[in-house]
Design a protein that fits this description.
By secondary structure, the protein is mostly helical. It folds into 2 domains: about 1-70, Winged helix-like DNA-binding domain superfamily/Winged helix DNA-binding domain (Arc Repressor Mutant, subunit A, Orthogonal Bundle), CATH 1.10.10; about 70-148, no CATH class. It has 7 helices and 3 strands, in the order βααββααααα. It has helices at about 5-10, 20-25, 50-70, 85-95, 100-105, 110-130, 140-145; strands at about 1-5, 30-35, 45. Strands 1-3-2 form a 3-stranded antiparallel sheet. It is elongated and about 65 Å long. This is Transposase. One of its GO terms (molecular function) is DNA binding. Pfam families: HTH_Tnp_Mu_1.
Length: about 150
């Protein structure tokens, strides 16, 4: 993960000026590059080169940004479980084979059940978004969301 030097100025563990930050990066041999696709010179540094406290703060800030963004309209990837009992498989296959049966079951839900289902889907969606970022496993993403 690459972070623009201009974003790092706001961290208290680093110099507060861009020139001071560039000097520190050069002195400590941080891995840097010019930000691709941007007019002018915007220098980025690899997050692994930063002090651990700054790395953690950058990851938290990025994860919070992801959580505040509007959710994508694309469906979350389907995660399948290992094996199911035959009775459960038969019920699932029945729903897949008959969309009308599925609609009847969905229409039978109360408003409270719908709200609970929507909330659960939103939480899972956020966990999956955070877990896709470098440095976050699913377990870390869950802990991060629960703690914040």
């Amino acid at each position: 993960m690459w972070v623009a030097m201009t974003e790092l100025i706001s961290f208290s563990d680093l110099p507060s000026s861009l020139a001071g930050l560039h000097k520190k990066a050069k002195r400590e041999a941080w891995k840097t590059r010019l930000k691709p696709g941007v007019k002018g010179k915007v220098l980025e540094c690899e997050i692994g080169a930063l002090p651990l406290t700054v790395q953690q703060a950058v990851r938290e800030r990025y994860a919070l940004q992801l959580m505040t963004q509007k959710a994508d309209e694309s469906p979350a990837p389907v995660v399948t479980k290992a094996r199911r009992s035959p009775a459960v498989v038969d019920a699932v296959e029945a729903y897949r084979g008959s969309p009308q049966l599925m609609l009847e079951r969905l229409n039978a839900l109360t408003e409270n059940q719908r709200q609970v289902a929507d909330a659960r889907i939103a939480i899972v969606s956020e966990v999956l978004k955070v877990a896709q970022q470098p440095g976050f496993s699913c377990a870390k993403a869950i802990r991060f969301i629960v703690d914040n």
